[in-house]
Amino acid sequence: MENIKVEKQEIADLFNSLELLNKKRNYYFNFDKSFTCMILEGLLVNKKRYGHMTCPCRIANGKRDQDLDIICPCDYRDADVSQYGNCFCGLYLSRQKYNNKIPTSPIAERRPNNKILINKNMEEETQQDKKIFPMWRCNVCGYICARDDTPDVCPICGAEKDRFSKTKETVSE
Amino acid sequence: MPYQKYIETVPGSATNKIFLFTLSTCVWCKKTKQLLKDLGLEYQFVDVDLLGMTDQISAYNEIEKYNPKIFFPTIIINDGQGVISGFNEEKIKALI
Protein backbone atom coordinates (compact mmCIF):
# COMPACT_ATOMS: atom_id res chain seq x y z
CA MET A 1 0.00 0.00 0.00
CA GLU A 2 1.40 3.39 -0.91
CA ASN A 3 2.56 5.87 1.69
CA ILE A 4 0.17 8.82 1.40
CA LYS A 5 1.48 12.37 1.68
CA VAL A 6 -0.37 15.27 3.23
CA GLU A 7 0.41 18.95 2.64
CA LYS A 8 1.09 21.27 5.59
CA GLN A 9 -1.72 23.54 4.41
CA GLU A 10 -4.23 20.67 4.62
CA ILE A 11 -3.23 20.08 8.24
CA ALA A 12 -3.52 23.79 9.03
CA ASP A 13 -6.97 23.94 7.39
CA LEU A 14 -8.23 20.93 9.37
CA PHE A 15 -6.79 22.38 12.59
CA ASN A 16 -8.54 25.70 12.04
CA SER A 17 -11.92 24.22 11.13
CA LEU A 18 -11.94 21.79 14.09
CA GLU A 19 -10.68 24.45 16.50
CA LEU A 20 -13.74 26.53 15.63
CA LEU A 21 -16.00 23.62 16.57
CA ASN A 22 -13.99 22.90 19.72
CA LYS A 23 -14.38 26.46 20.93
CA LYS A 24 -18.15 26.37 20.38
CA ARG A 25 -18.62 22.99 22.02
CA ASN A 26 -16.07 23.03 24.82
CA TYR A 27 -13.72 20.43 23.46
CA TYR A 28 -9.97 20.82 23.80
CA PHE A 29 -7.18 19.79 21.46
CA ASN A 30 -3.83 18.75 22.90
CA PHE A 31 -1.97 21.93 23.88
CA ASP A 32 1.18 20.44 22.28
CA LYS A 33 0.48 21.73 18.79
CA SER A 34 3.13 19.64 17.02
CA PHE A 35 1.62 16.50 18.62
CA THR A 36 -1.90 17.63 17.62
CA CYS A 37 -0.77 18.29 14.05
CA MET A 38 0.85 14.84 13.82
CA ILE A 39 -2.51 13.29 14.71
CA LEU A 40 -4.34 15.52 12.24
CA GLU A 41 -1.87 14.41 9.57
CA GLY A 42 -2.73 10.78 10.39
CA LEU A 43 -6.45 11.59 10.13
CA LEU A 44 -5.92 13.16 6.71
CA VAL A 45 -3.89 10.16 5.52
CA ASN A 46 -6.71 7.87 6.61
CA LYS A 47 -9.29 10.13 4.93
CA LYS A 48 -7.37 9.79 1.64
CA ARG A 49 -6.79 6.08 2.12
CA TYR A 50 -10.22 4.96 3.33
CA GLY A 51 -12.54 7.87 2.54
CA HIS A 52 -13.22 8.45 6.24
CA MET A 53 -11.05 9.82 9.06
CA THR A 54 -10.36 6.91 11.36
CA CYS A 55 -8.29 7.23 14.55
CA PRO A 56 -4.65 7.21 13.37
CA CYS A 57 -3.62 5.09 16.38
CA ARG A 58 -6.09 2.32 15.58
CA ILE A 59 -6.19 -0.05 12.66
CA ALA A 60 -9.11 0.53 10.32
CA ASN A 61 -10.93 -1.96 8.17
CA GLY A 62 -11.49 0.50 5.34
CA LYS A 63 -15.21 -0.23 5.05
CA ARG A 64 -17.13 2.62 6.60
CA ASP A 65 -19.74 0.41 8.30
CA GLN A 66 -16.96 -1.54 10.02
CA ASP A 67 -15.11 1.61 11.05
CA LEU A 68 -18.01 3.75 12.27
CA ASP A 69 -16.98 3.58 15.92
CA ILE A 70 -13.44 4.81 15.19
CA ILE A 71 -14.20 7.72 12.89
CA CYS A 72 -12.81 10.81 14.65
CA PRO A 73 -14.27 11.91 17.00
CA CYS A 74 -14.62 8.25 17.92
CA ASP A 75 -17.35 6.67 20.03
CA TYR A 76 -14.88 6.32 22.89
CA ARG A 77 -13.57 9.88 23.05
CA ASP A 78 -15.88 11.36 25.66
CA ALA A 79 -15.60 8.36 28.01
CA ASP A 80 -11.80 8.32 27.71
CA VAL A 81 -11.47 12.07 28.18
CA SER A 82 -13.68 11.80 31.30
CA GLN A 83 -11.78 8.84 32.75
CA TYR A 84 -8.17 9.49 31.69
CA GLY A 85 -8.09 13.15 30.66
CA ASN A 86 -7.29 12.33 27.04
CA CYS A 87 -8.61 10.26 24.18
CA PHE A 88 -6.82 7.15 22.90
CA CYS A 89 -4.74 9.04 20.32
CA GLY A 90 -4.17 12.03 22.60
CA LEU A 91 -5.84 14.53 20.28
CA TYR A 92 -8.57 15.60 22.71
CA LEU A 93 -7.91 16.54 26.33
CA SER A 94 -10.10 17.25 29.31
CA ARG A 95 -10.43 20.90 30.25
CA GLN A 96 -8.46 20.18 33.42
CA LYS A 97 -5.56 18.56 31.55
CA TYR A 98 -5.62 21.32 28.96
CA ASN A 99 -5.68 24.18 31.44
CA ASN A 100 -2.97 22.69 33.65
CA LYS A 101 -0.79 21.64 30.70
CA ILE A 102 -0.59 18.07 31.99
CA PRO A 103 1.37 15.89 29.53
CA THR A 104 -0.61 13.31 27.60
CA SER A 105 0.09 9.65 28.23
CA PRO A 106 -1.06 6.49 26.48
CA ILE A 107 -4.24 4.96 27.90
CA ALA A 108 -5.89 1.54 27.88
CA GLU A 109 -7.83 0.57 24.75
CA ARG A 110 -11.57 0.87 25.38
CA ARG A 111 -12.64 -0.42 21.97
CA PRO A 112 -13.84 -4.00 22.42
CA ASN A 113 -11.94 -6.69 20.57
CA ASN A 114 -15.12 -7.72 18.87
CA LYS A 115 -15.87 -4.08 18.25
CA ILE A 116 -19.27 -2.56 18.69
CA LEU A 117 -21.56 -3.71 15.93
CA ILE A 118 -24.35 -1.49 14.79
CA ASN A 119 -27.45 -3.55 15.34
CA LYS A 120 -28.74 -4.01 11.83
CA ASN A 121 -31.22 -6.65 12.85
CA MET A 122 -33.17 -4.34 15.08
CA GLU A 123 -36.84 -5.08 14.63
CA GLU A 124 -38.60 -2.89 12.14
CA GLU A 125 -41.08 -0.50 13.61
CA THR A 126 -44.37 -2.36 13.55
CA GLN A 127 -46.11 0.28 15.58
CA GLN A 128 -47.88 2.57 13.11
CA ASP A 129 -49.21 4.92 15.77
CA LYS A 130 -47.57 8.24 15.02
CA LYS A 131 -47.68 9.09 18.70
CA ILE A 132 -44.87 6.63 19.35
CA PHE A 133 -41.42 7.72 18.40
CA PRO A 134 -38.24 5.67 18.40
CA MET A 135 -35.38 7.07 20.42
CA TRP A 136 -32.01 7.69 18.86
CA ARG A 137 -28.73 8.05 20.66
CA CYS A 138 -25.65 9.74 19.23
CA ASN A 139 -22.81 7.27 19.83
CA VAL A 140 -20.30 10.11 19.93
CA CYS A 141 -21.74 12.44 22.55
CA GLY A 142 -24.75 10.63 24.04
CA TYR A 143 -27.33 13.15 22.75
CA ILE A 144 -30.70 11.47 22.72
CA CYS A 145 -33.69 12.44 20.64
CA ALA A 146 -37.09 10.89 19.96
CA ARG A 147 -38.30 11.27 16.39
CA ASP A 148 -39.02 9.17 13.31
CA ASP A 149 -35.52 9.44 12.00
CA THR A 150 -32.19 10.70 13.26
CA PRO A 151 -31.18 14.28 12.68
CA ASP A 152 -29.00 14.70 9.61
CA VAL A 153 -26.16 15.86 11.84
CA CYS A 154 -25.98 15.72 15.62
CA PRO A 155 -26.89 19.24 16.77
CA ILE A 156 -24.64 18.89 19.79
CA CYS A 157 -21.41 17.40 18.46
CA GLY A 158 -21.84 17.50 14.70
CA ALA A 159 -21.55 13.71 14.18
CA GLU A 160 -23.14 12.42 11.01
CA LYS A 161 -26.46 10.61 10.77
CA ASP A 162 -24.95 7.11 10.70
CA ARG A 163 -23.30 7.63 14.09
CA PHE A 164 -26.72 7.34 15.77
CA SER A 165 -28.18 4.07 16.98
CA LYS A 166 -31.76 3.28 17.86
CA THR A 167 -32.31 2.57 21.55
CA LYS A 168 -34.87 0.09 22.81
CA GLU A 169 -36.89 2.85 24.42
CA THR A 170 -39.70 4.68 22.71
CA VAL A 171 -41.43 7.84 23.77
CA SER A 172 -45.09 8.81 23.36
CA GLU A 173 -46.02 12.18 22.02
CA MET B 1 7.01 -14.45 8.31
CA PRO B 2 4.79 -13.73 5.27
CA TYR B 3 5.31 -9.95 5.59
CA GLN B 4 9.12 -10.37 5.80
CA LYS B 5 9.85 -8.07 2.87
CA TYR B 6 8.04 -5.18 4.56
CA ILE B 7 10.14 -5.36 7.72
CA GLU B 8 12.56 -2.43 8.06
CA THR B 9 15.67 -2.31 10.22
CA VAL B 10 16.89 0.84 11.96
CA PRO B 11 20.55 0.49 12.91
CA GLY B 12 21.95 0.96 16.43
CA SER B 13 23.37 -1.04 19.28
CA ALA B 14 21.88 -4.53 19.23
CA THR B 15 21.99 -5.72 22.85
CA ASN B 16 18.41 -6.93 22.58
CA LYS B 17 16.41 -8.00 19.55
CA ILE B 18 13.65 -5.40 19.39
CA PHE B 19 10.72 -5.88 17.03
CA LEU B 20 7.84 -3.43 16.69
CA PHE B 21 4.40 -3.82 15.20
CA THR B 22 3.39 -0.27 14.36
CA LEU B 23 0.98 1.85 12.33
CA SER B 24 2.43 4.43 9.93
CA THR B 25 -0.12 7.02 11.14
CA CYS B 26 0.12 6.39 14.90
CA VAL B 27 1.69 9.12 17.04
CA TRP B 28 2.55 6.74 19.90
CA CYS B 29 4.32 4.48 17.37
CA LYS B 30 6.25 7.48 16.04
CA LYS B 31 7.26 8.43 19.58
CA THR B 32 8.40 4.86 20.24
CA LYS B 33 10.53 4.76 17.09
CA GLN B 34 12.03 8.17 17.91
CA LEU B 35 12.84 7.15 21.49
CA LEU B 36 14.58 3.94 20.36
CA LYS B 37 16.55 5.96 17.83
CA ASP B 38 17.50 8.54 20.48
CA LEU B 39 18.62 5.70 22.76
CA GLY B 40 20.76 4.36 19.91
CA LEU B 41 19.10 0.93 19.92
CA GLU B 42 18.73 -1.22 16.83
CA TYR B 43 15.17 -2.22 16.04
CA GLN B 44 13.04 -3.73 13.35
CA PHE B 45 9.49 -2.71 12.59
CA VAL B 46 6.59 -3.37 10.28
CA ASP B 47 3.82 -0.80 9.66
CA VAL B 48 0.79 -3.08 9.75
CA ASP B 49 -1.58 -0.57 8.10
CA LEU B 50 0.60 -0.57 4.97
CA LEU B 51 0.34 -4.35 4.51
CA GLY B 52 -2.13 -6.05 2.22
CA MET B 53 -5.09 -7.81 3.84
CA THR B 54 -3.52 -11.30 3.93
CA ASP B 55 -0.33 -10.00 5.52
CA GLN B 56 -2.34 -7.90 7.97
CA ILE B 57 -4.14 -11.00 9.19
CA SER B 58 -0.80 -12.82 9.64
CA ALA B 59 0.45 -9.82 11.63
CA TYR B 60 -2.69 -9.75 13.81
CA ASN B 61 -2.23 -13.42 14.64
CA GLU B 62 1.37 -12.76 15.63
CA ILE B 63 0.54 -9.65 17.72
CA GLU B 64 -2.30 -11.47 19.48
CA LYS B 65 0.16 -14.02 20.90
CA TYR B 66 1.93 -11.24 22.79
CA ASN B 67 -0.75 -8.59 23.21
CA PRO B 68 -4.27 -10.10 23.12
CA LYS B 69 -5.94 -6.66 22.90
CA ILE B 70 -4.01 -6.04 19.64
CA PHE B 71 -3.02 -2.38 19.80
CA PHE B 72 -0.04 -0.39 18.63
CA PRO B 73 2.85 -0.24 19.16
CA THR B 74 3.41 -3.81 20.33
CA ILE B 75 7.10 -4.22 21.15
CA ILE B 76 8.50 -7.74 21.22
CA ILE B 77 11.85 -8.24 22.95
CA ASN B 78 14.13 -11.17 22.09
CA ASP B 79 11.45 -13.15 20.23
CA GLY B 80 8.98 -12.95 23.11
CA GLN B 81 11.13 -13.00 26.26
CA GLY B 82 9.57 -9.65 26.98
CA VAL B 83 6.69 -7.60 25.58
CA ILE B 84 5.93 -3.91 25.92
CA SER B 85 2.35 -3.04 24.99
CA GLY B 86 2.02 0.57 23.94
CA PHE B 87 4.38 3.52 24.35
CA ASN B 88 5.75 2.86 27.83
CA GLU B 89 8.64 5.28 28.12
CA GLU B 90 10.15 3.79 31.28
CA LYS B 91 10.09 0.21 30.02
CA ILE B 92 11.59 1.27 26.68
CA LYS B 93 14.38 3.21 28.42
CA ALA B 94 15.13 0.13 30.54
CA LEU B 95 16.11 -1.72 27.35
CA ILE B 96 19.50 0.06 27.25
What does this structure look like?
The complex is a heterodimer of chains A (173) and B (96). Chain A is of the alpha+beta class and 173 residues long. Chain A is built from five helices and five strands. In chain A, helix 1 packs across helix 2. Chain A is globular and about 50 Å long. Chain A starts with 7 loop residues before the first helix and ends with a strand. By secondary structure, chain B is an alpha+beta fold. Chain B has a five-stranded mixed sheet, sandwiched between helices. The model of chain B has no long low-confidence stretch (mean pLDDT 94). Chains A and B meet through helix 2 of A and helix 1 of B.
Primary descriptors:
heterodimer, A: 173 residues, alpha+beta, Ferredoxin Thioredoxin Reductase, Rubrerythrin, domain 2, 2 domains, 3-stranded antiparallel sheet, two-stranded antiparallel ribbon, 5 helices, B: 96 residues, Glutaredoxin, 5-stranded mixed sheet, 3 helices, 5 strands, 32% helix, globular
